[in-house]
């Protein structure tokens, strides 16, 4: 069976997001990745308010970003997002920044979790929270 394409969101690089060399500033890659993560949650039917009402919030525990090809002001980029669920307190996230011609501009791999906002500890099974809150859990690979 063919694997479905991962969720992705399109973004146009804005001039003020570039550094002195004219490249997309390194910190902005993380903002684009975060935007894609919140976008996939919305696509699945989960809003920030839904998470807060359950007393949890997503946390990034680790991000590794690999730059492959420069992005400049005016460039279009698609930022994908795929959750890889485990059996523990954390999950992995894979994100690829792709130009319209298929060139990979960057790759981000990360580890995330859900923080219990009262106890300030990671919840034991984050995928169950996402599954319970989502109107379409398939978007999240659940």
Task: Provide a short characterization of the protein structure.
With 142 residues, this protein is α+β, with helices and mostly antiparallel strands. It has helices at residues 26-43, 48-53, 126-133; strands at 7-12, 56-67, 76-85, 90-98, 104-116, 121-122.
Number of helices: 3
Shape: elongated
CATH architecture assignment = Roll
Helix and strand succession?
A: EHHEEEEEH
User: What's the CATH H-level homologous superfamily?
Assistant: Hotdog Thioesterase
CATH class: Alpha Beta
Q: Can you tell me the residue ranges where pLDDT is under 50 for at least 5 consecutive residues?
A: none
Query: In CATH terms, what is the fold-level topology?
Result: Thiol Ester Dehydrase, Chain A
- How many structural domains does the protein architecture include? 1
Mean pLDDT: 95
Helix and strand content put the structural class at alpha+beta
User: Total number of β-strand segments?
Assistant: 6
Helix content bin: 10-25%
Major sheet: size, sense and barrel closure? 6 strands, antiparallel
Strand content: 35-45%
């Amino acid at each position: 069976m063919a694997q479905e394409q991962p969720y992705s969101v399109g973004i146009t690089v804005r001039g003020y997001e570039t550094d002195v060399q004219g490249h997309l500033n390194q910190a902005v890659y993380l903002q684009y990745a975060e935007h894609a993560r919140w976008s996939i949650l919305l696509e699945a039917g989960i809003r920030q308010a839904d998470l807060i009402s359950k007393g949890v919030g997503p946390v990034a525990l680790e991000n590794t970003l690999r730059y492959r090809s420069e992005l400049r002001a005016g460039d279009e980029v698609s930022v994908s997002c795929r959750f890889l669920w485990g059996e523990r307190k954390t999950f992995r996230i894979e994100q690829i920044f792709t130009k319209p011609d298929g060139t990979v501009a960057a790759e981000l791999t990360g580890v995330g979790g859900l923080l219990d906002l009262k106890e300030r500890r990671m919840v034991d099974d984050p995928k169950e929270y996402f599954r319970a809150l989502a109107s379409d859990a398939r978007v999240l690979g659940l």
